[in-house]
Amino acid sequence: MRPFVQKKVRSIAPSQLLHSSAKTAVSQTRPDTPAWRLAVASLFHLHVQGVRVSVQDMNDLQAQAAVQTLSLLRWVACFSVPLHLAAAWWFGSADRLPMQPDELAWAQGLVRVHWGSAVIVTLMVLWVTYAFRRVGMRPFTAIAMQIAVTCLYIFLAALISLNGIRAGTGTASTFMLVCMTVGTLSPLRPALAFPLFTLTFFLFAQTVEWVHGSALSMAPLRFNLVTTYLVVLLVSGVVWRYYAHMMVLHKNLSDLAEHDALTGLFNRRFITQRTQDALGSARRKGCDTHIIMIDIDFFKTINDTHGHPGGDMVLQKFGALLLDSVRETDVVARWGGEEFMVLLPDTSPENAVALAERLRLRLFECRWIYESTTVVVTASFGVSGVPAKQEGGIDALFAAADRALYRAKQQGRNQVLYEACACPSAPSAFQQLRRGT
User: Fold this and answer.
1) At 379, phi and psi to the nearest 5?
2) pTM
3) pLDDT at res. 94
4) 272 pLDDT exceeds 90?
5) Which domains does the chain carry?
6) For labelling alongside 137, which of 92, 128, 155, 354 has CA 20 to 30 A away?
7) pLDDT for the residue numbered 220
8) Which are the catalytic amino acids?
């Protein structure tokens, strides 16, 4: 399993939690922008509550849509492959019926197309399944496979329609229906959908004109193709906008459920789950796991002196300081109120205490300015952990760190204290065998 990595980011407002990554660029739309201009811009960009999603976010959304489309393909194939086989059998039995030579040639052509479609779709599903399980689905690979699958389905539909048009017994309804279905089931951002469908309909129209050759009967077909082309673009744009909005809002809600709204750090619920996972991983790997509980000293006095805005500034600054001082694999969270917690996977007691002491000294040296007033902040630190050869519960670990923090505050604050977790020793192999019998 890939190790958990917490990105170091600046303190952010709740409305910006979606774009907490430092690499994510967002730009606010001007409030005086005309409605028609916003409508045109929304065809190529995504706006959520006035925030325009960056190009990187759009690429991530497209990659997620590609993965979901490829997953949906396997379910669609469960219906399409039997339909192709049934159609091949049906048209294959048409030679027993009294038919004209043109109709018979059309039926035989459909048999070949449907047999080929069943084989191609089956191979395509196997290819996608292999990519999911063996190769891995990177964003660029997923998008490329989505476009390839989309083009292949449209190509097969074009073959079926062209076979009927050439024999004079069919129309382009299959091609248009498949394009409409693809635009609905395969979300594509306008930057991809517009050139894809434009080139597709243009090549199909040129091929039909070359195959058919009758200018008189091509007029209604051209009208139908142009109308379908515009409808497909509209449907694709609506589907993409709805899909992107839902994914952005889902990600926003997920971030709000895992992050503290004021500081942008993880919240108590998230770090509790991460600590539980870290203890299980440490038990398997045989390594130490430690936590640091931190409480800002005399925070009520800070609130009374500078007001709640000044207290919020201190919490945000302190959260940013913690993120800037730990490893990428460490997890920093706001435990509640003026309390914070740092989870240190694979960390010895000496290194955990040393890190807490560095945090204490760095905080003590900080001089934050609020409304032309210098704010001096100190904090008390309680450190505890589960050694590699012991089995520790999360409640015992939190309780030990909380007791160490309480003693640090009782003994004068602005200091680091350590308390060992009261954890039983790990059972031996013989004891484990006895338990299993």
Assistant:
1) -150, 155
2) 0.60
3) 62
4) yes
5) 55-257 (no CATH), 268-430 (3.30.70.270)
6) 155
7) 78
8) 338
